[in-house]
Amino acid sequence: MTSKEWGLLLLLSLLWGGSFFFVGVAVKELPPLTIVATRVTLAAALLWLTAPLTGLAPKRMFHHFAPLALMGLLNNAIPFVLIVSGQTRLASGFASILNASTPIFTVVAAHFLTENEKLTPRRLAGALFGLIGVATMMGADLALGLSAHLAAEFAILGAAVSYALASVYGRRFRGLGLAPIDVATGQLTASSLMLLPLALLVDRPWGLPAPSLAVVAALIAIAALSTALAYIVYFRILAGAGATNVVLVTLLAPASSILLGALMLGESLALRQILGLATIAIGIALIDGRLARLIANRLARRVEPRSG
User: Fold this and answer.
1) CA-based Rg of the chain, rounded to a whole angstrom?
2) N or C, which end of the chain is more exposed by having fewer CB within 10 Å?
3) Where are the domains of the chain?
4) CB 49: neighbour CB atoms within 10 A?
């Protein structure tokens, strides 16, 4: 990747890692559905407002609204609600580490749902390392029977599974003639239509205490920065560096969320959570394959017979 693409990748890791921090602020005062409905509605509105600059094509988007709605369900509505629900009991840094298991579930889903992305021995090893990392983090709660924490942890894992299914399903949009900005705007618009009425019905936000200025700022930030802007940056990287490189953000995002959680929310990680993150990182590196190829190439150079 170019230095500019590396810069965009770091920016995206801050934007997506920051989303866990912003949620950590908002869940102190607002219920999950209200937070998520506000997030997707504001983000969709911002993408529509910037349509003249981004090249959004409404006719093309509405022609394929049904698959975009399913994408919105898998990639926004379900995972966002599960993550926010999980963060009512989990620290933002821990939630981001569990969510980093998304590539692990993606390769497993692709194995069963596609014809040309089957598990190789290296990818299978990576998936197993990732699952060991998840088990390392959740094992103590499972042994102690901490049902509330386990429910929250499984909610985050459910979000990771939903993201994985969305990743596999989203590959079909290449053949539909939709630009990336069409997909982003379409799925957020569909998510808004699903979640806004549900939040109004269930949470009745007009009866809730008025949120503090910090929570209002967190809601605006998660919609404008961690959703609308993040999608634009994501698709810029995708167009320039490809899907293989953009997956690296999964490894980088927890770092920013852990740092923000520690500095701003006073959160800390247990040793098992740090070990779990390290094991998941090894699994993702194995799935990605570049580190393994680099090591193999260097070893091959060392054993090559020297001429002369």
Assistant:
1) 20
2) C
3) 3-303
4) 11
